[in-house]
Amino acid sequence: MDVNKINCDDFSLADFSAYNGDDLFDVREPFWAFYQDAVAKKYMVYGNPISTAPSSEFEVYDRYLNQDRHFLNFCSYNYLGYSCHPEVIKAVQETVDKYGTGAVSAPLLSGYYNLSKQLEDSIAQFKKKEAAVIFPTGYGANLGVLSCLLKPGDIAIMDILSHASIYDGARLSGADIKMFSHNNAEHLETILKNLSKPHRAIVCIEGIYSMDGDLVNLPDIVAVCKKYGVRILLDEAHATLIFGENGRGVAEHFGLEDEIDLTIGTFSKSFGAIGGFVTGEQKIITYIRMFARSYVFSCAMAPHTAAGILKVLDLYQKDKSYRNKLWENTHYMLNALKKAGLDTGNTESQVIPVIVGHDHRLREISKLIHEKGLYTGVVTYPAVSNKRTRLRLSMSSYHTKEQMDKCLEIIKNAFDAVK
Questions:
Q1: pLDDT in tens, the chain (419 residues)
Q2: CA 48, chain centre distance (Å)
Q3: Rounded to whole angstroms, what are the CA distances from 174 to 71, 143, 150, 407?
Q4: What angle separates helix 401-417 from helix 321-339, to the nearest 10 degrees?
């Protein structure tokens, strides 16, 4: 590969992910040439520093103009706006005054605060489970839970669209990994039927799939898992506070909470903070607390983060008007996109993909919407295949009709301009 002749239009990130040279660092020269060409062509819209709160509009540094610019924000996971809620901010500020800026220790040492325990107890109560453990990140929750429970020879069976943290946790454990077709209970049953016996297995699924916005086919998948006696892990990252009468997620939505062995969640979406959790039976949660390496060997969640999440729980259980507004906005935006002839896949949630197709088209479209002041997810490999790239809109309760109309106008014009 001649680095002096690299044209980024001839490559995708997949080419560099699979690059294999004689030296571990050989990839750096061709990738740097690719990266610099992408920057020169204004395709590099990732990693721009943001200088204001993640509300419906914010200030973002534009590397091409070398200055901050005003953008519409359809990218943040701040679905219910709690990250900017004045009562949440006040609770965090008051806690910083008392506890300082961080936990500054691992949770099994001196990083476990009274607010940590209060949050775990509150999450377990909210999710109607016996116990919970909180992790510094949602990624770390899946990584720690699966890598400590599974052993070489065990089997992790996951939906092919499962999040990287699920796959990485299973891979770290040394377990055998099997994939079933997205949301396909029949294919899952074929895999389970062909497993050698006895076997130790867990099926890993998500409540809302983060790149497509569709719901898990939970009734059929649960039925198959129960038939073959395998455990179920359900990641409700994008569903907690959104689905179910009480906001407990897709399992509550389908009335199947008691059938789920372990529920994973994150505080970086609807809670507007950072961190993750796992809930389940007291005995297995205690085991996870002592053996999940991403918990045991990570610095614990900061007390002020726990305080903010506790305030969110309190506000949410008293008033669900933010969720109602989110659904109103989601339906409005989804209908408008469909009416404009855009492909939104099978989404049933506040995560709305707008399918672009080939990676090269996505680059041109992303450049145009960036120039027009729209900030949204620009999703390519490795998050999706190179032929199913997309924009990903994250809807929120604080978007106005005018902002949604402007978003649609920018996207429609960009799609029309890049055939």
A1: 677 789 999 988 888 888 888 999 999 999 999 999 999 999 999 999 999 999 999 999 999 999 999 999 999 999 999 999 999 999 999 999 999 999 999 999 999 999 999 999 999 999 999 999 999 999 999 999 999 999 999 999 999 999 999 999 999 999 999 999 999 999 999 999 999 776 899 999 999 999 999 999 999 999 999 999 999 999 999 999 999 999 999 999 999 999 999 999 999 999 999 999 999 999 999 999 999 999 999 999 999 999 999 999 999 999 999 999 999 999 999 999 999 999 999 999 999 999 999 889 999 999 999 999 999 999 988 888 878 899 999 999 999 999 999 999 999 999 999 98
A2: 19
A3: 44, 12, 8, 45
A4: 30
Q: For strands 155-159 and 176-180, give the pairing.
A: parallel
Q: What angle do CA 176, 208, 89 make, to 5 degrees?
A: 115
**What Cα–Cα distance (Å) separates residue 3 from each residue in 15, 16, 31, 32?**
14, 13, 8, 9
Tell me the residue ranges of DSSP E strands in 309-411.
Answer: 351-357, 374-379, 389-394
What is the distance between the alpha carbons of residues 30 and 34, in angstroms, rounded to a whole number?
6
Q: Is 341 left (phi over 0), alpha (psi -120 to 50) or beta?
A: left
Q: What is the pTM of this model?
A: 0.95
CA nearest neighbour of 219 among 162, 260, 159, 264 = 260
Give domain 45-74+321-417's CATH superfamily: Aspartate Aminotransferase, domain 1 (3.90.1150.10)
CB 218 within 8 A of CB 239: no
- Residue 254, Ramachandran bin (φ over 0: left; ψ between -120 and 50: alpha; else beta): alpha
Angle between helices 401-417 and 359-371 (to 10 degrees): 130
For 32, the 3-state DSSP assignment is helix
d(CA 372, CA 302): 38
Ranges of each domain in the chain: 45-74+321-417, 84-318
Question: Residue 73's beta-bridge partner residues?
Answer: 375
Distance CA 370, CA 309 (A): 32
Question: Topology of domain 84-318, per CATH?
Answer: Aspartate Aminotransferase; domain 2 (3.40.640)
